[in-house]
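Chain A, query sequence.
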Amino acid sequence: MWFDESVFYQIYPLGFCGAEQANDFGEIRHRLGKIGDEIPRLKELGVGAVLLNPLFESERHGYDTVNFFRVDRRLGTNEDLKLLVEQFHENGIRVVLDGVFNHTGREFAPFREVREKREGTDYRFWFNIDFHGNSRYNDGFDYENWEGHPELVKLRLENADVQNYLMDAVRFWIDEFHIDGLRLDVCYLLPAWFMEMIRRTVREKKPDFYLVGEVIHCGNFQQNVSPERLDSITNYECYKGMTSAFNSENLFEIEHSLTRLFSSQPWALYTGKRMLNFLDNHDVPRVCTALKERRNLLNLYTLLFTIPGMPCIYYGSEFGAEGDKGENDAYLRPCIDSIDRSAYPELNSHIRKLAGIRKSSRALSYGSYSKATLQNTNLSFVREFEGEKLIVAINIGAGDCTVRVEEAEGTDLLSGQVRNLNDIYLPPFSASIYRRN
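Chain A, predicted structure.
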């Protein structure tokens, strides 16, 4: 499928476009063009799909939706989004939106009516309401929310009217904007039958529609990565493992995860299934801030692009953008104009090269994974598919090393060097991607 072979690029539109942090529900500001201006650069970077975080009308950050059928006025109009998707498609880039189906904002019209009419409206069945309690907002009733956040009202997904509303929204997004996929927010809280409902709905419109679930753990979720439910999930285990292993100079940590998830062992969880891999996103510190040894930044991206699954770049991180959570997530979601694009020019160039390598290699999109050699500060592994064999070797240490894989010649796709794969020399803080000749 197209998504298996794509490099993803994640954009948090409200931050990227410099929108106000709170919606005053006033005039429309046409800001989505700021994303459109970046399309030529993203195409040059090698991006094949863009993931847009919430952009429908919300109170603050997008995950508190109040209207599933209207673009947030801080970003523009439905026509603006339609034009933006057209521009992406004209440049060969697919578009995936963020589907927030577990909860809404308090100003969502059905919930607002419950606040006004209490038992006098059938919308009370859209939520899990306790009319004998009281909320932190002193509503005179209490309700289920998302993980202790009363501003995010939990939807009662088993309600048929809720299901119809949400599926109508999905159909509308496909028909109106021609999107190619959805990221299912907090997918770990969505029932399996709901994932199947979404799959049936999108399959009627687009057989190759991409569904990726946000899952902050990887264990025991593999049954949901199936043709009837999801194509992929977010790989939080390797997100943590990659940076942590580099910071502790203990590559055993990340290799353990790679073998546990993707090896040919019968107990491996996601062998043959592809996950969405990332080094940072809108919820976690920027990789350039989290990584202790900056000389390993290129190595970390080399690993991201060569492990099983699809690599996803968070906007601005290709320039080495910094950012920690601080008091709130706003530090992770800055306007693109505030990011210094000249800080790490070699990183941007390296990502373009990695994207080109990935595009030319089916082994990186579909190949098996097996460990070749492993030490605290160096690792090599093999990706193999239909006769193509790649050997990835990484040295994160301050000293050089030599790794021995097999008695055969290979060409380094990063440097063009031809070498015997039983004598792969790695200078300090370096990596190679050899294709066996």
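The longest strand covers residues 378-385. The two ends are 27 Å apart (CA to CA).
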